[in-house]
Amino acid sequence: MNLLVIGTRGSPLALIQTQSIIDRLKQEYTDLEIKTKIIKTTGDQLCDYEHLEAIQQRGIFTKEIEKKLLEAEIDLAVHSLKDLPVEMPQGLEIAAIPPREDPRDCWVSLHYPHPDGLEPGAIVAVGSPRRANQLLRKRPDLRVVPIRGNVETRLKRLRENKEWMGTILAIAGIKRLGIDLSSFFCTPLGMDWMLAAPGQGALALETRQGDKRTKDLVQFLNDFPSACEVCAERSFLYELGGGCRAAVGAMAKVEGSKLVLYGIWWPEGSLRPKEGKVVGQIQEAKKLGQELAHLLKKL
């Protein structure tokens, strides 16, 4: 039976991302039957993510999907790579990384085009230690409050809360959802302001090890430069022992045959970050991530 069963979360963004993969597969294999299985994860069950301690767990948006993959209830899982823990479960592997969307974060505000124009004491709603720490590093005079939920929820809360002067979101999610931000200022943040989460903007197509059929089906979707960039970023995160909630930012860029990796890290309990960059051959992506982590640990 020429059937491929794909597992995904049921969020609007997850469904759009999965559909983009289905469309590419159907273009490539006109006789392939594809079914989608929506799987509710721990992260989805936490609703608006008020349970902050639970959010610290790794894999809250992926482990239930990976369980179905290991049990062969699905053949392929489509993940936002930044949600996928850097320690892969035994028996699973990333089979392909499609071309990456813009990995940067952007500043979103109803009133201010950039956070450097905020008044001292202005309140900014951010959803991760990585974003909060980097913002306060540039503007220690600002107040930061937590915000949870998907992109639409965060924008709704920003509209409703008149005390909040802005928030920071991933450009990739906004683009994929096709959200109209014409009533907002939406300004991409340069690396001097904000290094993204490792793997941000990339999708991961996960399969069972040894499932040659599925791996062969999705291989044409793999984008080598994107795969090298996220490999370096995830290697950097892994060596630092961090998860998706760690105060770690990373950005790798392919420049010809070279790979440049920038990283910033707040060790637990530290008020000051450690940061740096390394340059090497594109084929040495994993090694470069390790090298940068070891460099920052010595600072």
From TrEMBL:
The catalytic activity, as recorded, is: 4 porphobilinogen + H2O = hydroxymethylbilane + 4 NH4(+)
Instruction: Note the InterPro entries from the entry.
Output: HemC, Porphobilin_deaminase_cofac_BS, Porphobilin_deaminase_N, Porphobilinogen_deaminase_C, Porphobilinogen_deaminase_C_sf
Q: Which domain of life is it from?
A: Bacteria
Q: Which PROSITE patterns match?
A: PORPHOBILINOGEN_DEAM
Limits of the Porphobilinogen deaminase N-terminal domain: 4-215
SUPFAM superfamilies xref list: Periplasmic binding protein-like II, Porphobilinogen deaminase (hydroxymethylbilane synthase), C-terminal domain
UniProt domain Porphobilinogen deaminase C-terminal: residue ranges: 229-297
Keywords assigned by UniProt?
Porphyrin biosynthesis, Transferase
Task: From the UniProt record, give the pathway where this protein acts.
Answer: Porphyrin-containing compound metabolism; protoporphyrin-IX biosynthesis; coproporphyrinogen-III from 5-aminolevulinate: step 2/4
Q: What is its EC number?
A: 2.5.1.61
Q: What class of enzyme is it?
A: transferase
Q: Provide the cofactor list for this protein.
A: dipyrromethane
Q: Name one GO biological process term.
A: heme biosynthetic process
Quaternary structure per UniProt?
Monomer.
Q: Which PANTHER family has this protein been placed in?
A: PORPHOBILINOGEN DEAMINASE
Q: In which family does this protein belong, per the annotation?
A: Belongs to the HMBS family.
According to its UniProt entry, the function of this protein is described as: Tetrapolymerization of the monopyrrole PBG into the hydroxymethylbilane pre-uroporphyrinogen in several discrete steps.
Q: What is this protein called?
A: Hydroxymethylbilane synthase
Q: Which organism is it from?
A: Methylacidiphilum fumariolicum (strain SolV)
What gene, per UniProt, encodes this protein?
A: hemC
